[in-house]
Design goal:
The complex is a heterodimer of chains A (113) and B (112).
Chain A: E1 5-7, E2 10-13, E3 19-24, E4 31-37, E5 43-50, E6 53-57, E7 65-68, E8 75-79, E9 88-95, E10 103-104, E11 108-112
Parallel strand pairs in A: 2-11
Antiparallel strand pairs in A: 1-3, 3-8, 4-5, 4-9, 5-6, 7-8, 9-10, 9-11
Chain B: E1 3-5, E2 10-14, E3 19-21, E4 24-26, E5 33-38, E6 44-50, E7 56-58, E8 64-68, E9 73-78, E10 87-94, E11 100-102, E12 106-111
Parallel strand pairs in B: 2-12
Antiparallel strand pairs in B: 1-4, 3-9, 5-6, 5-10, 7-8, 8-9, 10-11, 10-12
The chains are: A mainly beta (113), B mainly beta (112).
């Protein structure tokens, strides 16, 4: 069964450093999402991406965040200058155009020290 | 804006007992509702979804949920809990912008 994959599974970085989280959505999916889950808190929407542009973003998704689909398979989330409060599990999700069901990847745990 | 409330951050049941996890939502558009399960150190797996068809929805692993518009609820049930059901369960509603808004999650513990 097709799956969303994410790399790395765990990333440790120092405050102020740039990180790139990578996702490979399911191949026939055209909507892509990033969510995050701070430890002990609810899963929060960050951004959605369709047709090579951001379609929605939350208040969390400020100027330090960016997303990109650099090729036909990868979908990336970049955090330009990480802060301690960016420590969280980051989930990528994807779906088809007609089906609202989102398929989630296993997540990347980001630890900012 | 849509919101989801899950009553009870922790629920403990005995193996073989009924599982009931509560979810109430608010939505300004006809809701699409989802239940996801998260096992330790894993991602979110879809259990079931409501998309305006039948109000009683059956999902994987013996779970089902009933959409009740009058109560704005979408509670998750399973007649008989199994040890392998221990996990965190999230209720979510599709926002008008097609992103998901999640509830705070309910951790289900199953006692032998």
């Amino acid at each position: 069964e097709p799956e969303v994959t994410q790399t790395p599974s765990h990333q440790v970085t120092q405050m102020g450093q740039e990180v790139i989280l990578r996702c490979v959505p399911i191949s026939n999916h055209l909507y892509f999402y990033w969510y995050r889950q701070i430890l002990g808190q609810k899963v929060e929407f960050l951004v959605s991406f369709y047709n090579n542009e951001i379609s929605e973003k939350s208040e969390i998704f400020d100027d330090q965040f960016s997303v990109e689909r650099p090729d036909g398979s990868n979908f990336t989330l970049k955090i330009r200058s990480t802060k301690l409060e960016d420590s969280a599990m980051y989930f990528c999700a994807s779906r088809t155009v007609t089906n609202y069901e989102q398929y989630f990847g296993p997540g990347t745990r980001l630890t900012v020290t | 804006a849509q919101s989801v409330t899950q009553l009870g951050s922790h629920v403990s049941v005995s193996e073989g007992a009924l599982v009931l996890l509560r979810c109430n939502y608010s939505s300004s558009v006809p809701p699409y509702l989802f239940w996801y399960v998260q096992y330790p150190n894993q991602g979110l797996q879809l259990l079931l979804k409501y998309t305006s068809a039948a109000t009683l929805v059956k999902g994987i692993n013996g779970f089902e949920a009933e959409f009740k518009k009058s109560e704005t609820s979408f509670h998750l049930t399973k007649p008989s809990a199994h040890m392998s059901d221990a996990a965190e369960y999230f209720c979510a509603v599709r926002d008008a912008g097609n992103m998901l808004t999640f509830g705070g999650g309910t951790r289900l513990m199953v006692k032998p």
